[in-house]
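User: Quick sanity check before I run a bigger batch. Here is a single chain. Can you write out its predicted 3D structure?
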Amino acid sequence: MNRLAARSVYSEVSKRGNAVIQGRSKHVVDVERELAHWKAAFNLGALPAMSFRYEVAPVIRLACDIYVRDPHGARSAWIDDLQGRLAKRSSLRGHPGAAEIADRCWSLLGCA
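Assistant: Done. Predicted structure follows.
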């Protein structure tokens, strides 16, 4: 499987003098950048889903929200939160690849 560059993960830019320094913050996630990263992975066939728009994008959005709300939380708590949220959405209820997609998103977000 091709691993896309981790720089597609959220980025917080700060200025020091004339230099621009890119850093990461566990409290900020650039969701649009995440979606672009995972769309590229989907297009390469690297995700267990048939539709990016209806299966992958909603899970990535949920995963980012869960991560931002509890960036230092346990993976098991994140999965429980994800399962609870998925159960409320009929279009995603029972999606077999959702946990894997979210877990991969959290792994990339947590590499900071």
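Strands lie at 12-16, 19-23.

User: Great, the batch can go ahead then.
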